[in-house]
């Protein structure tokens, strides 16, 4: 196991476990510092003492052989493993050269000693200075906090307010120093992977130049040297990408720390001061407390960061009640009393602030917690894996491959953001997409490539899905390269159909780009660095997730390198032809059934746009499905009532129509509810597992009710509960609007054929029968 990642959110909790993890990083830095110091000493002895060259070389080689790298995370990439074993390789070469000593060692000081001294002085020393500052601020903050908490509540309000502001300023400064120290420690741990090994590689290259007999050894070493150079460069590139992500996360934490606090496995945790009576004297003792809501267990650990982080024994009790202390009943502020079921008496606790006391009270008295709104639900992006998205991607890719596939830095060089946004908005709009001429000089290649990356970034979920993100990372961490390819091959074929199709389209294009790397300088590794974080972005932005970016890059590299096998062949786990036939027959058998909750996602739904909501209910509704901007539209009417008919002018890449369901006229127009739609006027439902399922969008209408069911008496469903399978927008005041997952009460048959009647939030209304599924 490597060093644990230090989360920025832990700086705000300042828990004992965080201090222990920080100590392990500090110990590793001290170990590295001592080793570099010893290595520099040995290098100078090697240069100055030619007569003892053999002894110095052996000692130097032994030092290299004994040192082991500790990487952040639970697994290492191939490049990191290559770098880690490089020291052992260097030691082997030095031992082989012992018998072929010469007296020519020049420039060794410039290529070996100075870079190591620079790293030690600029990086490790800077980390030590940051530690001193962090320890000083810790002591200062704890002292000010204790002094502040000992203030009497009877002081003047102005005095208390000023004291609160002073503590807030000291606390904020402590948090900033803590964040900067954690950032510096992890930065040095990452830097040593290349700034430490690179001088050693240069030193070895110098030795080969001056040793005649070493020429043959150099030829044998050349293959590993090449791999190591690539590994160092790849590690450096990943470090630059990772460092910018971590630095960005640190800035976000500084600007709005409350939004980025880590989600604890406990209901509540943090420091509390507990009133204890010792030798007939009452004293306040600082504990780190955790509270689990389910068993109502409170755990307290005696811990004081000022005393060097010594941890006392753990105490726990089962919570019985929690009561807020009145201000006039105790001199201290922010106090509350708790009672335990397994110990007598009342325990008085003091929180760190009024807000902290409120959080503890909410956690302990069982009131509903306040949940943050999902940021993704605040705005609905226009980027979707729909027909428009596929055609825009194909159009962009064609432009890149025909106009600028040999441009240097393709996909590396970013376009102007305003132009990228303008291109995407025009290309994604059915009204303007025909006017977009990508051959025009107005659209530079860097603008088009940036538009491709931006489209993939703003999808509601990453192209390779949150569901399989960890599975892809685990596959990249496998030791066996062939096992990695096999596992990723299988995972790709588990992706939803549209995701896999879009991924295949993109990866084949990237393979084409990589085949021109001599001209555009975009190797497979470089493309992995560009697209890894986009295709496999994590659901939660943490330091640990950022450290996995290097494995995201490896996944993309494997996809590009083995794209023909991955997308052409069915993985062995998927079964042979018999399995495929059974899957097809199973898919056909489900085409006439409404999808169940387990068969389709309940998080992605198609909602009508503002213009669609404004359409008149009784007018002719034209369904426009555009793959190209030249798609035509038509409408049909029957008798005195109008019905919607799907347009099949949109075709997928293989020419199959993109069938979309429409809401029957009897459901759209309340006046026509008396007539039941038949299969002759309404398209049959499409199975969600079928390739023609409309882009993970819920059907805009319930499935039609068969004539047999409409003629018979309503099924007895009185008083049952039902859950919504799809989202639905009411088009009449007697109907209910709802989203997928909504639970209805008292659901029973309605007089209107194809409709049920149920209650939602105290309001009774009509529900489409085939939009819901009854609960047991």
Automatic annotation (TrEMBL):
Residues 569-715 are annotated as: Disordered. PROSITE patterns: PH_DOMAIN, RHOGAP, SH3. Residues 575-584, 621-630, 644-654 have a biased composition (Polar residues). Residues 631-643, 675-715 have a biased composition (Low complexity). It comes from the Eukaryota. It is found in: Cell junction, Focal adhesion; Cytoplasm, Cytoskeleton; Endosome membrane. Residues 87-173 form a coiled coil. Residues 717-776 form the SH3 domain. One of its GO terms (cellular component) is cytosol. GO terms for molecular function: GTPase activator activity. The keyword Membrane applies. SMART domains: PH, RhoGAP, SH3. Residues 383-567 form the Rho-GAP domain. Keywords: Cell junction, Coiled coil, Cytoplasm, Cytoskeleton, Endosome, GTPase activation, Membrane, SH3 domain. GO terms for biological process: signal transduction. Residues 265-369 form the PH domain. Its main location: other. InterPro entries: AH/BAR_dom_sf, BAR_dom, GRAF_BAR, GRAF_fam, PH-like_dom_sf, PH_domain, PH_GRAF, Rho_GTPase_activation_prot. This is Rho GTPase-activating protein 26. It comes from Oryzias melastigma.
């Amino acid at each position: 196991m490597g060093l644990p990642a230090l989360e920025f959110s832990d700086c705000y909790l300042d828990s004992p476990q965080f201090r222990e993890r920080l100590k392990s990083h500090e110990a590793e830095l001290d170990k590295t510092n001592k080793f570099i110091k010893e290595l520099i000493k040995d290098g100078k002895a090697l240069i100055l003492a030619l007569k003892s060259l053999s002894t110095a070389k052996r000692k130097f080689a032994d030092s290299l052989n004994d040192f082991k790298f500790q990487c952040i995370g639970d697994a290492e990439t191939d490049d990191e493993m290559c770098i880690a074993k490089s020291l052992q390789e260097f030691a082997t070469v030095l031992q082989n050269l012992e018998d072929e000593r010469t007296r020519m060692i020049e420039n060794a000081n410039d290529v070996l000693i100075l870079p190591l001294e620079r790293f030690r002085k600029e990086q490790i020393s800077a980390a030590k200075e940051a530690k001193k500052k962090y320890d000083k601020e810790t002591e200062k903050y704890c002292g000010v906090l204790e002094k502040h908490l000992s203030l009497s509540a009877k002081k003047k309000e102005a005095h208390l307010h000023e004291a609160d502001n002073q503590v807030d300023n000291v606390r904020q400064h402590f948090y900033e120093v803590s964040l900067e120290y954690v950032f510096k420690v992890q930065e040095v741990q990452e830097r040593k992977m290349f700034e430490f090994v690179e001088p050693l590689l240069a030193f070895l290259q110098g030795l080969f130049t001056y040793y005649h007999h070493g020429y043959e050894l150099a030829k044998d070493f050349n293959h590993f040297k090449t791999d190591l150079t690539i590994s160092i460069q790849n590690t450096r590139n990943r470090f630059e990408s990772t460092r910018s992500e971590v630095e960005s996360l640190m800035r976000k934490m500084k600007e709005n720390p409350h939004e980025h606090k880590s989600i604890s496995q406990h209901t509540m945790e943090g420091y509390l001061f507990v009133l204890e009576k010792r030798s007939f004297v009452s004293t306040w003792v600082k504990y780190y407390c955790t509270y689990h809501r389910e068993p109502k267990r409170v755990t307290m650990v005696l811990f004081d960061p000022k005393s060097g982080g010594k941890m006392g024994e753990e105490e726990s009790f089962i919570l019985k009640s929690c009561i807020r202390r009145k201000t006039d009943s105790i001199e201290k502020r922010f106090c509350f009393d708790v009672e335990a079921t397994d110990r007598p008496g009342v325990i008085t606790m003091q929180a760190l602030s009024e807000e902290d006391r409120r959080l503890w009270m909410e956690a302990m008295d069982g009131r509903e917690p306040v949940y943050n709104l999902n940021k993704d639900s605040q705005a609905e992006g226009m980027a979707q894996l729909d027909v428009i998205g596929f055609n825009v991607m194909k159009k962009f890719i064609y432009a890149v491959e025909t106009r600028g596939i040999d441009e240097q830095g393709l996909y590396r060089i970013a376009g102007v953001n305003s132009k990228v946004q303008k291109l995407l908005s025009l290309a994604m709009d059915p009204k303007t997409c025909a006017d977009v001429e990508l051959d025009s000089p107005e659209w530079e290649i860097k603008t088009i490539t940036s538009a491709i990356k931006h489209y993939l970034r703003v999808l509601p979920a990453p192209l390779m899905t949150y569901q399989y993100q960890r599975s892809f990372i685990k596959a990249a961490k496998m030791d066996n390269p062939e096992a990695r390819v096999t596992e990723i091959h299988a995972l790709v074929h588990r992706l939803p159909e549209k995701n896999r199709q879009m991924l295949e389209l993109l990866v084949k294009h990237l393979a084409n780009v990589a085949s021109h790397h001599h001209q555009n300088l975009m190797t497979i590794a470089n493309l992995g660095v560009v697209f890894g974080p986009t295709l496999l972005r994590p659901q939660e932005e943490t330091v640990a997730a950022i450290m996995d970016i290097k494995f995201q890059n490896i996944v993309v590299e494997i996809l590009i390198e083995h794209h023909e096998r991955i997308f052409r062949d069915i993985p062995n786990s998927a079964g042979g032809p018999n399995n495929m036939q059974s899957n097809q027959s199973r898919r056909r058998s489900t085409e006439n059934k409404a999808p169940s909750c387990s068969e389709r996602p309940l998080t992605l739904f198609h909602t009508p746009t503002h213009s669609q909501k404004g359409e008149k209910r009784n007018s002719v509704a034209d369904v426009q499905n555009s793959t190209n901007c030249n798609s035509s539209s038509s409408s049909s009417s029957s008798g005195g009532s109008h019905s919607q008919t799907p347009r099949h002018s949109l075709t997928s890449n293989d020419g199959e129509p993109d069938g979309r369901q429409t809401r029957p006229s009897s459901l759209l127009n309340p006046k026509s509810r008396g007539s039941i739609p038949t299969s002759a006027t309404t398209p049959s439902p499409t199975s969600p597992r079928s390739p023609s399922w409309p882009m993970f969008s819920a059907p805009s209408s319930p499935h039609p009710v068969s004539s047999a069911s409409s003629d018979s008496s309503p099924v007895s469903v009185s008083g049952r509960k039902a859950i919504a399978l799809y989202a639905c927008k009411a088009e009449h005041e007697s109907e209910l609007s709802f989203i997928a997952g909504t639970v209805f009460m008292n659901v029973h048959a309605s007089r209107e054929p194809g409709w049920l009647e149920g209650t939602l939030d105290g309001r009774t209304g009509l529900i489409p029968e085939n939009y819901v599924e009854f609960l047991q």
